[in-house]
Amino acid sequence: MNSFSPNGMSSHRSKSGATKPAYSYIALIAMAILNAEDKKLTLSQICDFIMSRFQYYRDKFPAWQNSIRHNLSLNDCFVKIPREPGNPGKGNYWSLDPKAQDMFDNGSFLRRRKRQATFWTH
Fold first, then answer.
1. Which end of the chain is more exposed for a tag (fewer CB within 10 A), N or C?
2. Contact yes or no for 68/24 (Cβ under 8 A)
3. Where are the transmembrane segments (predicted)?
């Protein structure tokens, strides 16, 4: 449900009235991974983290889960880590590419800094 704020801008709210957080999906994923003890999580663990912190996403689950999956696969700042043999469970782990960790310096998840492309010359 959308409502309008006093300045005329649309504000996204859930059924319970919770406001959509000002974080991108990339920022939410990074927040979850960086809060994990070993800095890697499964898709399910990432979604659990997001729902535990933001009422809006608890109310809207599972509609946004595919967006999280899409962002993990699409963005090169996330690295897929296969499960070790003998480690039962569903799905791979995801971690932040070490080259991307400076995107969230000082705990700021609101803006994504542009990463410079690496060019190879022969």
1. C
2. no
3. none
Q: Report pTM.
A: 0.74
Per-residue pLDDT reduced to its tens digit, 48-81 = 999 999 999 998 888 899 999 999 999 999 999 9
pLDDT digits (tens, 9 = 90+) for 111-122: 444 555 555 555
User: How far, in Å, CA of 40 to CA of 102, rounded?
Assistant: 17
What local confidence, expressed as pLDDT, does residue 92 receive?
94
| Candidate CATH numbers 1.20.1050.10, 3.40.50.10470, 3.10.20.740, 1.10.10.10; the one for domain 22-97 | 1.10.10.10
Name the average pLDDT for the chain: 80
Query: Residue 112 burial (CB < 10 Å; 0-12/13-18/19+)?
Result: middle
Q: Which of 14, 57, 60 is nearest to 32 (CA)?
A: 57
Beta carbons of 71 and 79 less than 8 angstroms apart: no
